[in-house]
Design goal:
The protein has 513 residues and is an alpha+beta fold. It folds into three domains: 9-221, no CATH class; 280-361, Helix Hairpins, CATH 1.10.287; 366-510, Histidine kinase-like ATPase, C-terminal domain (Heat Shock Protein 90). Helix content is 46%, strand content 16%. It has helices spanning 58-110, 123-133, 166-173, 214-263, 280-325, 331-359, 374-385, 407-423, 479-489; strands spanning 9-11, 140-146, 149-153, 179-185, 188-199, 205-213, 370-373, 392-395, 402-405, 430-437, 441-448, 493-497, 503-510. A hairpin with a 2-residue loop joins strand 4 and strand 5. It is an enzyme of class 2 (transferase).
Length: 513
């Protein structure tokens, strides 16, 4: 008997086994079979219905986003898992078909009927013997055909009798070589492999058909996917409940901010939020508290400005009004009244300028820093101060070096100190202006020879509307307050020293840059 590669099984006297190099699963003895087609991929997940969109609850929106992401992850996981399991089922089906064909080839390779001890003389005998020795797997059917007619079937009863389907039998009988394919049946797709059988000396033609019901095999995959889906839904429900509680705790500080914003009014800005933790919500609470600090300070400055303006402007306005109401027709008296009115208007103008300076001191552009040369600034202060009054202006110690400050504001503060010194001295009195530079700070000062500032007044003269003892000025007492404000804007301070005579007021500023 002879054998042809990739052809029908032939029983041979020499015991040769028909084989194929293209079917390694058969160990070189099974005919080549086409690999199974991959199971169809799921291109898209089922579309969920339009979600409920709460309009007023950030907590609910956050929960919906979280649940949506979890659902998406669950669907993607199920699709990938199902596809992987289906491919494993297909591989298992192909392995089962290869195993059945391999066992049949091993039986045919012996060439001798183990019952009679004679050579096989008919393909039906070879097929019948194989059916008797084979134990079928679940969802598997094995048929024997002789001359295109069913000659046997492996028990038990399969889901669908392929031997009773004329079209299926005709398809199997028409195979000239080993063929692998699929058929659509009432129980789903059947994946089959047909192996033609020829026995030398016999004109009859046989065929072994091995089929596995693929869709029935895949049912276990659907069961696993349904179990995973059910477990995922339970986990989703649990995760959603925990997420709802967690979102409430996370958003509680935000709700505190909302309630605080509702309760806080212009008359009470003292409330602050409790800051817990170091996350973004805690940063929001800190930012909100900082905003309240600025608002409270701004409202306090506004009230202070209004109080100061109403307090200090009331007297000059009364004087102006009184002089205008009692103005005489006499030219001399009229001129005297106009002089008083103009003086009071000038004083009001200076007062308003000083109040505006103090009101603007908390603005971000009150100080515009730049590089300042200390010696040039000191000489510039002295040159401008000489025009203030008839005093013996002298240059004290002069420092050198650069520091970072707003030159115009520092110049304004120094000239204000010079005006204050003029107010406490008389013509010909000595006023010294000087400066000094240290490693971390610079000092600029005005030292007058006046009566000085008593120890009990030194803590108060930097406040608004406080005048030192024997001032010759009719100012409102805002000069040193302005100087102190400019110093604080530079992160510095105003220091009142205790020299042997007079008063020395020093502007102490840090060196920056």
């Amino acid at each position: 008997m002879t054998y042809r590669d990739n052809g029908p099984v032939r029983a041979t006297a020499s015991g040769g086994v028909p084989g194929t190099a293209s079917d390694p699963a058969l160990g070189g003895v099974a005919a080549d079979a086409a690999r199974p087609a991959s199971a169809p991929r799921t291109d898209s997940a089922p579309r969920a219905g339009r979600p409920w969109r709460p309009r007023d609850s950030a907590r609910a929106r956050l929960l919906l986003v979280q649940v949506g992401l979890v659902v998406l992850a669950l669907l993607v996981t199920l699709v990938i898992t199902r596809q992987y399991l289906l491919e494993r089922v297909d591989d298992r089906i192909d392995a089962a078909l290869a195993q059945e064909v391999g066992e049949f080839r091993a039986l045919a390779a012996k060439g001798i009927d183990p019952v009679t001890g004679a050579l096989y003389d008919d393909p039906e005998r070879l097929l019948t013997l194989h059916l008797q020795r084979t134990v079928p797997q679940e969802n598997e059917t094995i048929l024997a055909l002789v001359d295109g007619v069913p000659a046997g079937r492996l028990a038990p009863e399969p889901p669908v009798r392929l031997d009773l389907d004329p079209e299926a039998v005709a398809t199997f009988a028409s195979a000239q070589d080993v063929r692998t394919g699929e058929l659509e049946t009432a129980s789903g797709v059947v994946r089959y492999r047909v192996v033609p059988v020829l026995v030398e000396g016999s004109p009859r033609r046989g065929a072994l058909v091995v089929g596995v019901f693929r869709d029935l095999e895949r049912r276990e995959v659907d069961v696993v996917v349904l179990v995973l889906l059910g477990a995922g839904l339970v986990g989703l429900l649990l995760a959603g409940s925990l997420a709802w509680v967690a979102a409430g705790r996370v958003l509680r500080p935000v709700d505190d901010v909302r309630r605080a914003a509702e309760e806080i009014g212009a008359s009470d800005l003292s409330r602050r939020l409790e800051v817990r933790g170091t996350d973004e919500v805690a940063d929001l609470a800190r930012t909100f508290n900082g905003m309240l600090d600025r608002l409270e300070h701004a409202f306090a400055d506004q009230r202070q400005f209004l109080d100061d303006a109403s307090h200090e402007l009331r007297t000059p306005i009364t004087i102006v009004r009184g002089n205008l109401e009692t103005m005489s027709a006499d030219p001399a008296q009229r001129a005297a009244s106009m002089t008083v009115v103009l003086d009071e208007l000038d004083r009001m103008g200076r007062l308003v300028d000083d109040l505006l300076t103090l009101a603007r001191s908390d603005g971000p552009d009150f100080v515009v820093p730049g590089r300042v040369e200390l010696s040039e600034l000191t000489l510039g202060v002295l040159a401008r101060a000489r025009a203030l009054a008839d005093r013996d202006w002298q240059l004290d110690e002069v420092g050198a070096g650069f520091f970072l400050a707003d030159e115009q504001r520092v110049l304004q503060a120094m000239l204000q100190l010079a005006e204050n010194a003029v107010a406490h001295t008389g013509p010909g009195d000595v006023i010294r202006i000087g400066s000094a530079a240290g490693p971390d700070s610079v000092d600029l000062w005005v030292h007058d020879s006046g009566p000085g500032i008593s120890p009990e007044q030194r803590d108060r003269v930097l406040e608004r509307f406080v005048r030192a003892g024997t001032s010759r000025s009719d100012g409102a007492g805002l000069g040193l307050a302005i100087v102190s404000t400019i110093a604080r804007a530079h992160d510095g301070e105003v220091v009142i020293d205790e020299p042997d005579a007079g008063a020395r007021v020093r502007l102490h500023l840090p060196v920056r840059g």
